[in-house]
Specification:
This protein is mostly helical and 205 residues long. The protein has ten helices and two strands. The protein has one domain. It has a two-stranded parallel sheet. GO terms for molecular function: chondroitin 4-sulfotransferase activity.
């Protein structure tokens, strides 16, 4: 009897594992060019602020160079298992926006079960086609795929930053500062490599 119970328990666990494997094979993760992602997050949370009185700038008062230096420092603190520099709550949540994408979702354990789709706000056609392709491969109905792809074009987030003049200005400032750009490339190096984004020429030397 005990042996039968053990066998049934093993069978149950095998079924659970098989179900999870089937589900996990259909997971998707959206990835973005590391520099575009950093600047977008910076503009949204620091420059414009989450709210009018809630700016997340690492105490740098909208100084982008200071922000990048503090980000690098705090990421090293995490890597070295030093006491958390983050306050519990908003600051901890906001910081997640700036972690390398290869730190997300146990990437190094689960990278083989994800379909990675590049997001580029200036090329929604390719983004939408890749989503539709991945959904179809997972046997999602055509009606559902049509609904999702339609919503991608219709919905626009309130904090979208890509089209704002200040965003372009900060991007120009960055690309005119090779040392700062190289530091950012160093922070997000594995994001560039693992997800197939081109490193800026300033970072290839």
């Amino acid at each position: 009897m005990k042996e039968m119970k053990k066998i049934l328990q093993i069978v149950k666990w095998m079924v659970k594992i098989m179900i999870m494997q089937k589900i996990l094979k259909k997971f998707m993760e959206f990835v973005r060019n590391p520099i575009d992602r950093l600047i977008s997050g910076y503009m949204h949370l620091c420059y414009y602020g989450y709210t009018e009185n809630d700016h997340y700038c690492f105490g740098c008062n909208k100084n982008f160079t200071c922000f990048v230096n503090m980000l690098e420092k705090r990421l090293w603190q995490i890597i070295n298992n030093e006491p958390s520099p983050f306050k519990i709550g908003k600051e901890l949540g906001y910081s997640y926006h700036f972690y390398p994408q290869t730190w997300h979702c146990d990437y190094y354990k689960n990278q083989h079960i994800y379909t990675y789709i590049k997001y580029d706000s200036s090329d929604k056609d390719s983004f939408t086609k890749n989503i539709a392709k991945a959904l179809k491969k997972s046997n999602i109905s055509n009606d559902t795929i049509t609904f999702i792809t339609k919503k991608i074009y219709e919905i626009r987030t309130q904090h979208v930053t890509i089209s704002k003049n200040a965003t372009t200005s900060y991007k120009n400032i960055l690309y005119n500062n090779p040392l700062l750009l190289q530091k950012i490339c160093s922070i997000y190096y594995y994001d560039f490599i693992k997800f197939g984004f081109d490193l800026p020429k300033e970072c290839k030397n």
